[in-house]
């Protein structure tokens, strides 16, 4: 393990300062060679992370032929964004209108000013494409939308395949006694053996068998398949989360990679995609203490599935600033102070090398300088700055976890939309 002063000197030698998107072109050009570019974030409430990811995303779409964005969000709400930016619907007057569909807590993750601007850009970009050129898509990879996904399935089937709607309603009715309370379903399933696994698997099988008949709306077959996949994997997730947090995590991240495959298949194998998720999902789990707990994540699974050369993961971090988060699950959002990084952490070490915005690109030449296992800050939707040193730092080998790392010296809370 290198001494801190050695790592500081290595950061000074290999880091690149940046002030705008032009300064990031070396990173973008390198990332563009991959089939999947994974863009992380150290929190779910930092403006700079969203803005930098948006700028990188625009470059990858405009100049490197990337076809879609897949995010750590619910499929039904993200699919409405997809419909809006592709002109499939006149239901929404503008981006802010479509973002109202992100009503499930924590809504600020996607219903914010930074995403609003990106969505309007995507719509304008798609509108200006030649008629023969496929439009850029926007999709959600997460597993939490069990009830919303079931409702979307039923609505489509009632309007277009009434005979199959009965099976969907039967599956949905199985969940009704739990009043959309995931924990209530999990307890019933884990401890009392009362679950909806059979009904969900039957519905998933039916939708898979009949996917080629879902042609009444643009991308209906894709949406039906992924909504059914969400329902199936969400059932497993909620069943497991009561008794095994680590395995429920694995179910969630495996689901996100499986959903990504469906999207990729829709766009054909040669298409290239951009993934937006927290560092804890896109940074390879094998380079953290997650490995010893038997946990996997999207970063690891995509590298294993497609090969490291076809996946380019970019982590993000900050030394101090402000963030949008909540003091407990389900409570209102707050703007909270992010204190200076803990001494000895990656963020502290980079700060000591130079208190300015900078990034590192890891290569065979320099990886050995950033291979030490030290703390790397991770802020979730629930955050307590006063005790972050006890639970918000993930032991990480930075150059194994990511292919590049973007550091912002001082960050600011993003701007949630208020409806």
Describe the model.
Keywords: Hydrolase. Its EC number is 3.1.-.-. This is Putative erythromycin esterase. The chain has 419 residues and is α/β, with parallel strands linked by helices. The chain has two domains: 4-66 and 277-411, EreA/ChaN-like  fold (3-Layer(aba) Sandwich), CATH 3.40.1660.10; 146-245, no CATH class. It contains 16 helices and eleven strands. Strands 1, 2, 3, 4, 5, 6, 7, 8 and 11 form a nine-stranded mixed sheet that branches. A two-stranded antiparallel ribbon has the order 9-10. Helix 7 packs antiparallel against helix 8 and helix 10 (197-209) packs antiparallel against helix 11. The protein starts with a helix and ends in an 8-residue tail after the last strand. The mean pLDDT is 95.
